[in-house]
Target: Transmembrane protein 199
Amino acid sequence: MASAFVVGDKFRNKVTHLLGKSESALPRALGEELEEVLEKPEPTILPFSTARKIKKYLQDNGHPFYLHELLEDSSLHLPEIVKPPRNPELVARLEKIKAKLANEEYKRITRNVNAREINCHGVLSDFGQQVRSVKAVVVTIFNFLVTIVAAFACSYMGSQYLFTETTARVISAVIAASVVGLAELYVLVRTMEGDLGEP
Model:
């Protein structure tokens, strides 16, 4: 937080002029403070307390200029914030905690990986499992097609006792095969939902 001004040349000139005038009758304590401020090397720092004293003196003695005119080319002095050194024990503990968290995260990510299975027989067992699942899908599709064809053939052959025209027999066979196919699809979907729902 600012507690002083960095004064410029305008302040130096006016204060030097005030100090040089014998009739200005600056209070002795204020004069000494100002001389001390001006003797310091650049940048010249003027504390707020001294600035308040100058303001009071200017107001009381009716000088033709004000404090803000003295400080026109000045700026606030913002001291640098000095960061305290970090405690080495705390830094060591933080590094240990970071390493522990990173290790736990690595174990969590790799908990399903078994290097022995992958290297020895993991590839072949995966291949066998994939072949079994493809075989099950092929058998299911084949069963579905055979069921529809059998339903069509059965309906076509059985409809000869009801219809004499071929068109009516084909239409009735298509309707029967469609109904059987939809029923087969319904059963297939319910079975797949049951398989997928199992843990």
